[in-house]
Amino acid sequence: MKLDWNGIDTVLLDMDGTLLDRHFDDHFWLEHVPKRYAAQNGIPLDEAKKLLYALFRSQERTLNWTDLDYWSERLGLDIPVLKQEIDHLIAVHPGVVEFLVFLRRHGKQAWLVTNAHGKTLSLKMRKTRLGPYFTGIISAHDLGLPKEDVRFWEKLQERVPYEPSRTLLGEDSETNLGTAEEYGIAHLIYVSRYSSTVTPTASDRYASIHYFTQLIPAAHTDET
Hints:
It is a single chain. α1 packs across α2 (45-58). By secondary structure, the chain is α/β, with parallel strands linked by helices. A 6-stranded parallel beta sheet has the order 3-2-1-4-5-6, with helices on both faces. The chain is globular, with a radius of gyration of 18 Å. The chain has helices at residues 23-41, 45-58, 68-75, 79-85, 96-105, 118-128, 140-143, 151-156, 174-183; strands at residues 10-13, 109-114, 136-139, 167-171, 187-191, 207-209.
C-alpha cells in the first residue's frame, strides 16, 4: 500500500488487535474469566458464560469495558492476577517492530493510543518490550473518554500535539476509525488480521492491511 509519508508527521497506533494479537484478550474474557467465575461461584461454565457475556455487552463503548478495577469489583475476581495466569498468550503481530523502527528512523512521532487500562498496559509493555519505540503512551482512562467518543480525539490534542490532516491512525476497530474520521484525522488504516485465530476480512470503508510492513515503502524494507 502506498502512502505519502512526506504528508504524515504523527502516527497513532492502537494496541490490542492492532499491534498485539487479540487472541489473548478474546481467550481471556470469553474463556478464562468465565471458567474462574464458574469455579468460584459453583455454577456450570455455560451459565457463567451467558451471565458474563451479557454483563460485558452492557459496558461496550464505555471506559468500564477495559477497566480492570471495575471488573474485579463487579465479578469478585482479581482480574490483573488472572491476566498474569495466561500472559504467555500475549504476542506482537508480525511486522510491528519493523514498522516502529521505520517510523523512528524517518522522524515520525509514534504514539500508542489505547482504551486499555493502565494495569493492562503495564503487563503488556513488560511482556512485549514495545514501550521504548513510542514517543509516548496514552490510555483513554487518562483522558476520561473512550476512543468510541469523537471528543476523545480533541482531548487527545491536549497531550499529543498532532495535526489531524498530517496524522495516520492504525486501528482494528472500524468504530474508532469512524470517530477519528469525524474529527478529521486524514490517514486511516484498518488492521484486518487482528487475531491469529480469525480469517482476515477487509473493511468496506477503510484501507485495510494484514501487517504493518505493508505500509513500509519497498525502498526501505531492507533498513529494518
